[in-house]
Specification:
Elements: H1 21-43, H2 48-69, H3 74-99
Amino acid sequence: MQGGAMHGGGQHMMGGQGMSQGGRHNMDMLNQMMGEMQQMKGQGHMTPAHQEQLQDMMNQLGQMKQQMGGAMTPQMEQQHHQRLQEMRQRLNTMKKQGEHPR
């Protein structure tokens, strides 16, 4: 086994040139959510369970971002879009819960 085979060489993250309209929309949505999550973490008034969920979602977004940097099929873009929308809903729910602690 080769060491370091996991790092995909000089893969640059910002697609752009080869990215479809749907892919670009997903990337925008992803970047926006990452920013919001960073903000939420920075505010610090979250339960440990929420922090764990947030970290989990950030990890998933990171993986999706790497995939988006590579070759994408329309099916993959559709899957990403659905996952992003699900995460958006979770994020909005967490925000609401954070504002009104029970």
